[in-house]
Every structure is written in structure tokens, then in C-alpha cells.
Amino acid sequence: MQLVTNSAAMKNVSDVIDRVAATDANVLVIGESGTGKDIAAQSIHERSQRRDRSFVKIDCAALPEDLLESELFGYEKGAFTGAFEGKPGRFEAANGGTLVLDEIASISSSSQAKLLRVIEERIFERLGGKQSISIDVRIIALANIDLKEAVRARVFRDDLYYRLNVVTVAMPRLAERAEDIGPLASQFARHFASRGGHNGIRISSEALKSLAEYDYPGNVRELRNIIEQAVMASDGETIEITNLPEYLRSAARLMQSKQRKPSLAEIEAVYIREVLDFTRGNKTRSAEILGISRKNLYEKMRRYEIGKLRPLRDE
Ligand SMILES: Nc1ncnc2c1ncn2[C@@H]1O[C@H](COP(=O)(O)OP(=O)(O)OP(=O)(O)O)[C@@H](O)[C@H]1O
Ligand SMILES: [Mg+2]
What we know:
The protein is built from 14 helices and 9 strands. It is an alpha/beta fold.
């Protein structure tokens, strides 16, 4: 996957990545879930001198404290029950390259202290080991925006924060960079179409308009999921507006669609949703606007499954 940088906001991110890639500085990548922190970390590594060395990633939130430390620093034979043989950790594996610490905010204060020492002294010992190992690793830490808050609340050490945050890469929300939506959607469409054995798939202009107007609380990952489903729902050649989830379509745009004319029921369902949105869910007002009885409105809402919560994100 290519890092899409069509918008001014992402061009700026890309410039920061270029500048930091040329150095050995540690980097903190912050951003909401799904904004592309992982892919940004990968780009830093690939654009750096270290690109031919290893790129190692560890999810700090996925492991309890002692497991995380043995994964990071490795252990010697007999370090704990069950350690029949020694094992190198991720720091050793990443030597000369890049180590990505995902969800850095979730590490315990004891692990924070150990991490700080490796960063400051560039040496550490395996668990249960006496021999000091020196390493040369660039650390890229990933965090949701609340890391600064964690520092203020004193659950994250400020000295470690400053060591990790030599340079910040801030990933903007997808809604703040509408110019990326089209190119991202095309890239995902090509990706999922080729996985399904299709070559070349296009997105109709009505579908693109609907995609561009949505606000993506789940950011790029949500767009990716929408396109994956749309490719499966499509004929393999064109993604039409009717292949998009219902909450992305408007009745007016559905009717304008040149490729496939929707049924009356489809238009009715989408239009009832629009009116309910407009009245903020007021059934009496909605029924008035629609020119039907409240009872009739309730029947239609049941038939079209309107009013059920729609899934926003799936991860
Ligand atoms: N600018 C981009 N260009 C191309 N693909 C992108 C871009 N940004 C994100 N993606 C894709 O969107 C998906 C989500 O991105 P990523 O996993 O990097 O998000 P994240 O910020 O790490 O989210 P989380 O905090 O939930 O781990 C991935 O499949 C990634 O490849
Ligand atoms: Mg991630």
C-alpha cells in the first residue's frame, strides 16, 4: 500500500516524515484510531538509511507487564520457570533498524523506567542476564492523542515522553483531509478487486460524491472497510452508489444515478431516514412532512429496519 498524500495536511505529514527519516531521532506518531499511524511508521523506516535493516513492531497493549518485558529485552536460560533456553528480545532483533512500540501509553511504570534506560544508555541486559548488550535502534512510538494527557496525569513519565517525542508526526483525521478520500478509495478498490481476481475497477462519480461527504469517525480504516464491502457487492467493474452502505447515500443522489435506477422501496427507505434526521427523530413531524400517518411511518420504519443502530467501526 502506498501512503496517500494528496491533501495539504498529508503533504505536510509526508514532509515531516522525509525530514525525520534522514535522522536517527526517535519519533512519536499520534493520531486517532485508523488515521494511519502504522503506515506512517513504516514510511519513516522505508525512507531512512535503516531501510535494509530490520523493522520490528510490538503492540504494548496486547501483553501483560512481565511478558512485554521478556519480549522487549529477551531472557537468559533459567530467568523464570519454563525458560529452558535463552531468547533474544525485540530490541536485539531490531538492532541497526527500527523498533515500533504501538500503544505506548499502555506500558507500566516499571517498563517505562526500563525503556528510558535503554534509550538513554543504549545498553540493556536480558532478563536474568548479567551481560550488558549495546544496541543501536530508532524507536517509533505510536499513541492515540491522549499521551500528553497521561503525562499531565502522571501515569506516563515526562522524561520518557520527551525522549520518545524528539519529533512528532501528527496524523490528521480523515474528515480533515477530504482530498485524500478519492485516491484512498481508488487504491483500496484496486487492492480488493485484484484480490477477488478482477483487474481494474472504477468508482462511479455518484459513489465518489457520497464517499467524499461522509465524516468517517473510524478514519481511513473505516473507508477501507466500506470499499472492501462495496467491491464484494459490486459487479467487479464499477462501484455504484447502490453498493455503498445505506447511511452514505442520499435519496436525491440515488435518483440521479445513471448506471442503476433504484427501486421505489430503496428511495423510500433512504428518504424516510433523511426526514428523520432532519426532524432529529421526531416521528410526528416526520409523518407530517412525509404526508402519512404516524402508524404508517412506524410500519415503514420496521419494514426498512430504520432506527436500528448502524455499525460505525468494526474494530
Ligand atoms: N495515507 C494512507 N495511505 C494509504 N493507506 C492508508 C493511509 N492511512 C491509512 N491507511 C490504511 O488504513 C488502515 C488503517 O491504518 P493504520 O493501521 O495505520 O491506522 P492506525 O492509526 O495505526 O490505527 P490504530 O490506532 O487503530 O492502530 C491500514 O490498512 C492502512 O494501510
Ligand atoms: Mg495501529
